[in-house]
Amino acid sequence: MKPSKPLGQLTLFDRFLFAEAMESPGNLQILLEIILGRDVHLKDCPQSEKEIRTTPLKRFVKLDVWSQDEEGVVYNTEAQKENTGNLPRRSRYYQGMIDSKLLEPGEIDFRKLNQLYVIMITPFDLFGAGKYQYTFQMKCEEVPGLNLEDGVTRIFLNSHGTDPEGVSEELIELLHYIEHTNEKTEESCKSGRIKTLKRRIDSLKENAEVSVRYMQAWEERVMEQNEARKEGIKSGLIAGKQKKLEEQIQKKLVKGKNPEQIAKDLEEPIETVRGIIEAVKGSIDS
């Protein structure tokens, strides 16, 4: 069984290729420098699929690519292929989860929170204004020009932009390349940095080890989907059986039978029958 899309046909909007490519500090540095329009000197290697959770019982997130520069600025860079309708609030959640891990336990000085960029790259216009880039920072509605200065910047990039005002030609070219990574674009590339990025990613696609990892990642995903499907079927069967049992118990209660008689008739433990009766009474009372 093979993946539906060969490795060579992936674009940077495909999670696997984006993570593989951006684990290289050089590749991520090119991406960030073009987006932000300034030099970025990354510290250590970027981390792809970085898992962040506050407690085992709370929801966790997997960040596409997490990185930090030599000045301590943190970057969370995401390639979002599908419009799930929740990206603004998801970016808020990512920001909160990242912030929760930036201070040492017991630290009371919130000024030590790192400057943070949450960057989401999409092949659709999330806000409908035709912009290639939408940058959000906290500002005061009552006082024009007054910024909160909380150190957080959220950037949404749109490869389908139509209005080039305020962005560089290189950024527009980068966004086009991210969406069309599987096409021959080097001839039309004007940016030397994007040409470098393209050569490196083309090399990744031809790398035998990367190909094996792609197959393994795809197989793991198929296995997870199959397990989830099995669990769903199992849960459905259990729920169906439980509902039928509840209906049988209610019918026997209407006929005036007590819990012991019902348990005997249905061949169910008395504890189970009593529990269902209490639950039914509770729903009626409420």
According to DSSP, the number of beta strands is 6
- The neighbouring-strand order within the major sheet is 1-2-3-4-6-5
Mean pLDDT: 87
Flag low-confidence runs. none
Distance between the termini: 53 Å
Largest sheet, in brief, is: 6 strands, mixed
Radius of gyration equals 27 Å
Q: What general form does the structure show?
A: elongated
Structure class = alpha/beta
**How many domains make up the coordinates?**
2
Helix content: 40-55%
Beta-strand percentage range: 15-25%
Separate helix tally? 8
Write down the secondary-structure element order: HHEEEHEEEHHHHH
Summarize the structure in words.
It comes from Brotonthovivens ammoniilytica. It holds the Pfam family PDDEXK_2. InterPro entries: RpnA. The protein is 45% helix and 15% strand. It has helices spanning 15-22, 25-36, 87-99, 169-179, 192-205, 208-254, 259-266, 270-285, and strands at 42-52, 61-69, 74-79, 116-122, 133-136, 152-158. The model has no long low-confidence stretch (mean pLDDT 87). Strands 1-2-3-4-6-5 form a six-stranded mixed β-sheet, sandwiched between helices. The chain is built from eight helices and six strands. The chain has two domains: 7-206; 241-285. Helix 7 (259-266) crosses helix 8. It is elongated, with a radius of gyration of 27 Å. It is an alpha/beta fold and 286 residues long.
